[in-house]
Design goal:
By secondary structure, the chain is an all-beta fold. It has no helices and six strands. It has a four-stranded antiparallel beta sheet, with no helix packed on it. The protein has a two-stranded antiparallel ribbon with strand order 1-6.
Length: about 110
């Protein structure tokens, strides 16, 4: 879709023109108003599970589809367009050989 996204990884093993795959965990998509960029996909199935909603989407370029996990109830209906918000800090970048580029961003967690 032509959106630009800065992914917080060590890309020194990549050069201009290399093929790479963007990886995002289902729970790491964000609300569009909190996103660095947004993409749209078509809802295949929306599972409203009470405490969370899982949305399975179809999008050109994503051969296996996209899964989104959101807490609570999310208004998503089959065959509608859904906007996905992406934050580059929560993304992974995989080289063509399948190896992940080292992430610079550390997820916040509990320290004991």
């Amino acid at each position: 879709g032509g959106e630009l996204l800065t992914v917080n990884v060590d890309g020194s093993s990549l050069k201009a023109g290399d093929s790479a795959t963007l990886g995002i965990r289902p729970e790491h998509f964000v609300d569009p108003e909190k996103a660095q960029c947004c993409i749209q996909a078509r809802v295949n199935v929306a599972e409203h599970l009470g405490d969370e909603t899982q949305i399975y989407l179809d999008m050109a370029g994503a051969a296996d589809g996209i899964t989104v996990r959101r807490s609570g109830s999310v208004p998503a209906q089959e065959d509608s367009v859904f906007t996905l918000g992406i934050d580059g800090n929560s993304c992974h970048l995989f080289r063509e050989d399948g190896q992940a580029c080292q992430r610079h961003y550390q997820e916040p967690c509990l320290k004991f």
